[in-house]
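Deliverable D5.2: sample structural annotation.
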Amino acid sequence: MEREDECALDRYIAAIPLNLRVVARAAYEELSNNPFLPVFSKDEIARLVCSPGFQSYLESENRTNAGPLMMLCSAGFATRH
């Protein structure tokens, strides 16, 4: 993630539980790189991902460990050094 992205997300991510932050980062990365959502700023996407309404989705992704976001998390960890 670029530094601009991290700043946008870091403003809001403290509001969600620690166990959901990795999934929230994956969701943010997925949404902010989506070419079909150009009307939303990075800040708006960060607020959405960290909102209470989106939290239930993050919880279900975290619980299943097989959802697309968890696969992104795993892939991200595998490519980092």
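Annotation notes: DSSP finds five helices and no strands in the chain. Residues 3-79 form one domain.
The annotation will be released with the project's public dataset once the embargo ends.
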